[in-house]
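## Example record

The block below lists the input lines for one assembly entry, exactly as stored, with component labels intact.
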Amino acid sequence: MELSDANLQTLTEYLKKTLDPDPAIRRPAEKFLESVEGSQNYPLLLLTLLEKSQENVIKVCASVTFKNYIKRNWRIVEDEPNKICESDRIAIKANIVPLMLSSPEQIQKQLSDAISIIGREDFPQKWPDLLTEMVNRFQSGDFHVINGVLRTAHSLFKRYRHEFKSNELWTEIKLVLDAFALPLTNLFKATIELCSTHANDASALKVLFSSLILIAKLFYSLNFQDLPEFFEDNMETWMTNFHSLLTLDNKLLQTDDEEEAGLLELLKSQICDNAALYAQKYDEEFQPYLPRFVTAIWNLLVTTGQEMKYDLLVSNAIQFLASVCERPHYKHLFEDQNTLTSICEKVIVPNMEFRAADEEAFEDNSEEYIRRDLEGSDIDTRRRAACDLVRGLCKFFEGPVTGIFSGYVNSMLQEYAKNPSVNWKHKDAAIYLVTSLASKAQTQKHGITQANELVNLTEFFVNHIQPDLKSASVNEFPVLKADGIKYIMIFRNQVPKEQLLVSIPLLINHLQAESIVVHTYAAHALERLFTMRGTNNTTLITAAEMAPFVEVLLTNLFKALTLPGSSENEYIMKAIMRSFSLLQESIIPYIPSVITQLTQKLLAVSKNPSKPHFNHYMFESICLSIRITCKANPDAVGSFEEALFMVFTEILQNDVQEFIPYVFQVMSLLLEMHKNEIPSSYMALFPHLLQPVLWERTGNIPPLVRLLQAYLERGANTIASAAADKIPGLLGVFQKLIASKANDHQGFYLLNSIIEHMPPESVDQYRKQIFILLFQRLQNSKTTKFIKSFLVFINLYCIKYGALALQEIFDSIQPKMFGMVLEKIIIPEIQKVSGQVEKKICAVGITKILTECPPMMDTEYTKLWTPLLQALIGLFELPEDDTIPDEEHFIDIEDTPGYQTAFSQLAFAGKKEHDPVGQMVNNPRIHLAQSLHKLSTACPGRVPSMLSTSLNAEALQYLQGYLQAASVTLL
Amino acid sequence: MPVVHEHSERMRKFKNKGKDAAALRRQRAEVSIELRKAKKDEQILKRRSISFSLMDRSVSLGEEKSNENIQLSLEEIVEAVNGSNRELQLQATQATRRMLSRHKDPPINQIIELGIIPRLVEFLTHADNASLQFEAAWALTNIASGTSDHTKVVVEGGAIPAFISLLSSPHMHISEQSVWALGNIAGDGPLYRDALINCNVIPPLLALVSPVTPVGFLRNVTWTLSNLCRNKNPYPPLDAVKKMLPVLICLVQHGDKDIISDSCWAISYLTDGSNDRIQIVVDTGILPRMVELMTSPELVIMTPALRAVGNVVTGTDEQTQAAIDAGVLAVLPRLLRHAKPTIQKEAAWTLSNIAAGPSQQIQQLITCGLLPPLVELLDKGDFKAQKEAVWAVANFTTGGTVEQVVELVQSGVLKPLLNLLLAKDSKTILVILDTISNLFLAAEKLGETERLCLLVEELDGLEKIEALQIHDNNMVYRAALNIIEKYFSGEENPDLQPGTGQDGLYDFSVEKQDFNF
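Predicted structure tokens for the full assembly:
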């Protein structure tokens, strides 16, 4: 493309089209631009347009397109063609800085981004004059230009804040420091001078303060990796000025906006960060300045208002104090009783107050409020910062701080008592203060785990929390109600059980509160109380203690789901699940109504599943209903099927992907409840379960395998007789699974069930094929997981069909195959098998090979007999071998595409461990002894001689132990 | 810094394959790039002689007092130096020396530009004029004390052989001045150091060490020797090292603190290298003395002694054991608690390399009570020292047995370690995250994963790790994500195990394990 007017015109047309709302016009234009972007001069045409176009919209569009072009193409990837020709690269680098600086702000931003992308690749080696070019502009006196330079520098240097130290990085930083540090310092000083000359000129001040913010940010980046010599030498200049900026105020810079932070706030906030950086990393050098900063920041806090725009500044400032007050050598700065009192009174208490913005969130944005308040995503909030400062101060001054605050708590409670409807916020602050003072360590699972012993939590609970919750109206003072419920929740391990029991009906009552926060907290608190552990690994609160409340609890929980804003409230659903699990059979009388409500809910949410946690707990609750009911009355399974199958069919037909894995799990649970032959309704579904489309989704595989296993357990004979034509399809599924390193164990689960349950004649014709497949996989991509599953399978096969059959089928595939598998796989790898049942299967299988397989005694396989026995004894006695070869370490479930739709396993649909040799063999060691004894009776003399010639001494000793325990001797 | 992290990353995977503990050891950081000010507690490379009193007294005996005040212009100096009047030569050389000995801003460049350096070197050979020799030697010493370019002019003027032969001058003050000049030349770097060694500087230098050598003189000799041991890339030749070592061993036994200090510095340079270099030093049996000197109340002695021992434990397990046998573990606690941050840092670095050893050495570290000071340092130390302490913990958790790791956790390491996740240093954060993974591996073996999870959460570690999931550094955020996914995301599953599992219905089936693969 030439740099011609015609081309500029064409490009303008296409750029214009890319802004068209109609995709039919927009898309082709975008495609066109993409198709020409490889041409020489394309970027230069864009630069020309963004500078010279008559239309502003085209200028902006060209600048955005240019930046995206740079982003996509500038990097030179090894072994890939260079996507921008060298002359264009040179021209871009030569022009972009002046162009950026002379552009209006909107375009300047795009170009500045482009420069930093280029800089990331080319700076410093391939763009040696960039720094000088930038620094020279500092002299211009034009702060529009200077800010452009500073912004670009910031985007180039900010990576110093997170990259690892390396020679390459430090060489670059050194280069930057040499060229940039002094001019930056001079600019800093000059800018501050100008601020005082222009102290009365609002618009000038704004520009100057923008510069100061950028300069302060650059300071942070340049000082991040280590303290540069230059900045150490010039610490006086920087810190003195930073300090005075912290204390500076100018009415002209104050903004009316209550939410958005102004320039003054942003600058002070960055200065707090800079001071914190020095305090943390360069304490030795910074020590002389630190006390001044502590005082300045503390004064700043005392004088800063409650508006949201100050939030970041205030929380940064408080965090600075919190980090400093914990250091032993700065302890003295806080020690004085007046200082402590003043910090508590003027910094901590005001920042704990419930603000208008909090109240708004409480009412209108309760989800966000709950997340912040309950789940601790409050890291940057004022309350949180204040709370951290309390904890920091408590490290050295727990006694005095607790004393000071007790006074405040009392006076705030008194204020509240005078006129609750006006002063309720005082009580809220009091509760918050007590909470932050008392909690030294906390977890989601247990609430507070370490409390300040100077605070009497139970007394406060009885005197100030319970009365609120006992009040007649659940809707009065909702914030205080939420505070009270939260108090129970987090101090549940500190408050005695009898108090918790008193609270339970109160909490159940508050499930009816209109406020989303209140009824959500009530549900959450109940759920947490129900998971507390008592003695002997039982729950602290027992089903018996809950007996009087079962009906009202269930009624209120389900009613809460009908309250506005809570139709898919995960906390409530989780509380339902937990209540079922705790109450067990006492919920049976309510099941008909419960299951109706759950299925209706299921039907409703399956239209548009949006709350994964809610859905998960809903399915868990369904599973619990089934389990609990059918345990008492197995015949009830039919009524569940009746209630659920209609919804399930709809979910399957509409292919609601999120729910399908759950449906399979619930179906498995239901099918396993059947005691007799498989019902025909299930058999009708069987062919559909083998549909490849279902197996393409990773999340379906575990529950589908589980379901097919249930089919095989309950209906193997029916499948063999009525669906024999589906057996190849079933084995096809096995083949699909075995081909994948991630899913092969699932394939083996299926195969094991087939071998265990299917009548032998029904799979006879496929057996050889199965082994061939397995051997192929063994040959091509052996993994430890595969070998473990393979070993279990062949031993299960051996148990089911006999050792001789195993040997025959192996050797029929390839001569001497059996010996090879013994020697190369079983003997060296058997130790890797893990799991009790799996080990038992292998032990019994190998015992059979040793004692019930004639070729082991009279062919060349005989030489493997003792090594095999030794391996078996090793399996019994040696610790599991869990070494994994190197390359396999990296195979991960994430390597399977589409794992995103992850399988969510339902705990309450859990399957019992199945032991196929359970009946047959109780103690595999004794079983080995007995089998050897039988073998030695059949061929006297052979066994002892084989043992004495090559079994090692230790193994022999173990073996003798088994023989003794079995009271047999070898002949 | 070597790529230790990658090593420890690999170590974990190869855990059962026998450890290569040496891979964990971190040599003294090889930074060719420094952003910081040159360290104040490093030994001085070059020194200028500005002290009048001592030196002048020894020479003024044969001089007229009035000579001292003669002021000459630069032109007069050039003329006199190049002239043949011996009186004027001496006056001019002396005037030059005096200018160069000025307390502030000696005019080294101007003197060099006069072009008189070769002439001054020539004066060194005037054995019949001791005063001239001495003044020239002094002037040249001070020129050589400048930048590399300054030293270069002196060397290229042919000063090396001249000074070496002056070592054997019958006049002690000339010999001493030559020692000083040679020290400055050696201090310039490996190139001139080896040039000196090749000119056979060592035998005459060592010959100056005797029981009757005055202390001041001996200090200079020791300092010059230390510069001959100094610098890497390349190291000083082995046979030179072997010649100097026996003398250095004697010097560390001296009673003078400067002599001990400089000889310790020399030992620290000789140990700052590959394992075979370390071995030569270890073989001399000097370690017990070094460890003793680590407890010296004099910072100038403690600092290099600590560095030397710190270097030794970067070596093989056997070399580290030699340091342990010499008692290093008994003196480290005091140093870890030292008021000076650099001492804390060096001590922690030393400890980190001992912790990189086999579990027996880790056990000795525990037995000698190193865990409490280590935890204190992590909690309250200077940031530089905290960083090293983090490495010590990381190495400990990589090489320690499960029981040892339990002991580490019981000593309270977790809280300060997790607090340091707020450190403003990506590498430190990553090392901590790796350490946390190691702790979880140990917990898994004990079936205590759940408890560790709770502990981490209680100590506010969980929210810090969660926050790191949005860290700008890729490796950091991935490591954080990994821990969260592996140990904290199944939040519900352990939860879902009901307390009401009497009937066994709620047992997890075997396949559950495998899903997690």
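The radius of gyration of chain A is 37 Å. The first helix of chain A runs from residue 5 to 17.
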